[in-house]
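Sample 1 of the test manifest.
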Amino acid sequence: MTVTSIEPKDNKEKWLARLRRFFRWLTSPHVVLSIIMVAVMFYLVIIPLYRMVVTTITVADVDLRAIRGAEVGDFTWYHWVRMLTGKIGKLMTYQPAMHSIVVALGATFLALAVGGLMAWLVCRTDIPGRDTIHMLAQVPYIMPSWTIAMAWLVLFKNQKSGGTMGLLEFITGAPTPDWLAYGPIPIIVSSGLHYYTFFFLFIAAALLSIDSSLEEAGELAGAGRWRIMRKITFPLVIPAIASGFIMTFSKAMGTFGGPNVLGVPVRYYTLSTMLRSNSSIGNYGDAFVTAIVLILFAMVTVMLNQKIVGTRKSYETIGGRGFMSKKTKLRNFKPIIVAIVVIFQFIIAVLPLVLLVYSTFMLRDGKWTLDNFTLAHWIGKGDLSINSGEPGILLNHKVWLGAWNSVRLSILTALFTALFGVVLGYAIVKGRGTWLSKIVEQMSFIPYVIPGIAFGAVYIAMFTKPVGPIPALYGTFALLVVVSVAKHLPFSARSGVSAMMQVSKELEEAAMLAGASPWRRFARIVFPLTSTGFVSGFLLTFITTMRELSLIILLVTPTTAVLASMTMRYIENGNDQQANAVIILLIVLVLIGNFIISRFRGGSLKKGLGL
Amino acid sequence: MDTPIVINNLTKKFGDVIAVNNVSLRIEPHTFLTLLGPSGCGKTTLLRCISGLEDPDEGEIYIGDTLIYSHAKGISVPPGQRELGMVFQNYALWPHMTVYKNMTFALEIQKLPKAEMDKRVKESLEEVKMSGYENRYPREMSGGQQQRIALARMLAYRPKVFLMDEPLSNLDARLRMDMRTELKRLHHISDATTVYVTHDQLEAMTMSTNIAVMKEGVIQQMDTPDMIYHYPANLFVADFIGNPKINLLKGWVSSEDVVDLGKFNIPAYTHRKTGDVVAAFRPEDITIHTEPVEGGVEFSAYSVQPSGADTTIIAHKGDTEIIVKEMGVSKIAMDQKIWLTFNKEAINLYDKATEKLITGS
């Protein structure tokens, strides 16, 4: 009945067959894309990391005085020994590391407590105004992470270290105590209140996705409300808490704005501000040791997290499915709780902006009376007595250049991130189960565990000199795009995968059987069906890049400065009002961008986060 | 279209799992072959290997005279050039295209003139009784209608071979029955070689000209539905086919043409003098008597389950259970004493060790 297959006799034919099979494998679209992406990511992630490590163990020009008899390029442990031992080790590594951990942990737990409680109130109680709370909860996400820190200064700074007085000191007449003006507590509170959005969105989505019959089953079994919460609800939202935890912790570890505004004036250094101060004096060997320490901390966190919660689950978010659930009645507490939530959200979302705006109308910083009112910081012509002679920001071409840089950086980053999202999503999903797909997925995950400022540092190491076909990019605008796109790789991969997963594979297979070329399948089938997901991704990337600071602070130059980095420069020069005006401008631009983009095909911030 | 499909020594692995294990088969032109088996038996994988959506690890496949896949020669013709059409389990209609666009997608690639495309769309829609739906989007139609459009899309393409992967499994029972009728008519008219995958034996029995029963990546038996039903090649096939299930009782050949089942003997063509066997007989091949008869074995009616057209009776004798099917509504009451006689012609014996059908030759 069957014809026995004829094995080719000679070796040449066997090799030819092998070659054909290999070629077929190599030319299948997902393999081509995977290989391209592996090459790109190797260049964007692995090589920079390698160069960074090499820099820490190589003698540089600036080290010649310290290391006797060495020549540039020699191997040395000098930086590691210096940074990890003795007095300098304590001052430059251990103390900042301690501070970073304290600040990051504090901020994360504060964000967890606030975000979790709010999520529970919105999803599980009969609190009124649910949609408004939901909307306001996303506001911090639109603001740069150090907005609250700057507002904090306006409110609490004291004459002792800031030179001028904040609102509190103005009103009470007594100097604000140092612990309230600067240092760990202000940093923790201001960043915790910024990052609570992650927890809120993740936990709310998880709570909504829990089938309430699970809880009802517990109720029928005679469990009380508290026991159900502890034994059923809580374990089910643990993955969401965990994903919020690593996201927030690694962001808080790597964040630069808050600690720079609230820590540096009182010499409360964290690893990120220490990294900046070393790299700004050109001591890259030392700076990179700090960066590596920072990366190791972040990696340990992620690993611990995955060990405790179980692998992978931790950063997979749960898709919200609207189940009916029983709402806890707040009864008599309702007015009180509503009042607390309203005040709280006002403090987080509205008050900082009001304070910042108000401060931009003060001619002399710290003088809170009406006769001090001015528009000079916005439309001043440039009076030498104000702001070292810089004109108001709306007339300042440097600010407009920064704004233009911000917008163009964000758009380019969002475009490339969306493009990589399509490519990564396709490569990973179509190759599911193959080693190549796993490599692509895992490589794309690496930037996730590298804190922003350390990731920026990695790129100094990479592009101060030409590498292969790529010219020395240091100081160019292109470098900012490269680093932003690279940092967004995990997000690209995740949003690409989830968009691609929504298209059942048969849809593409049917087109394959119809004889459609890979390009045609992509243009006619895959892309139209995934584009909504990419619009959301585009929006999210646009926003995060607009207000990104930690990542690019080490890489900007006066000509490539963006609004975010300008706020830092102004505040470091003591021009607080201008810094605040720039931040307001930045937020306005984000809102405009948000508005324009969300007109297209129903993209939204929440969708972009994968909720 | 005289298009046979020949498969030689085909193997497909997923990691350590062998989904299709050294399968060889020849599908004659005009055949409606059903690949039947429980989930995970490799039937869908085999179909996908034929379609080219899956690359096998060993073996070769011919469609007509064309070698479309050969591991040894390193050949694999891309799916789009194999000239076959496929209907997917979830229909795989492109949700962002109208029915017309769905149907002309492949035709556009072939660069057919517009008039020809219109003609084909019209004809194919008529064939599936969906004329006038050209401008609908898939989500504007019911599941059954989407199924018909998926079929029409395949027909418009005029493939040499039809491949269908559980196309009816997402439909409700009533629609499934209608679609079985249509599919069978369609095959009757088009006469195209068809490979159909299902786990539903009723679909397989009613539509196919041939059935290949699969288990663990191996074809257990390939034959006409009639032969599969009446002469299952091994115990797996016997047990898998038939509803209610076939009766399988362990016994031994006590003398020529007599099988001892422990508590009673039944007549059967034993083709051997001795040995351990499993006797298999269909519920409808047993006759029920309410009075003792010559050769009748006494049982008690443990459960009586009428379903209208016929009645299923579970008969017990000690711990031996036999399922009997009687036409019409049975008069037998539960726990009533009954006597069963067995049709010698209809009893198949299987070797207990090899589980294979014992035949005369």
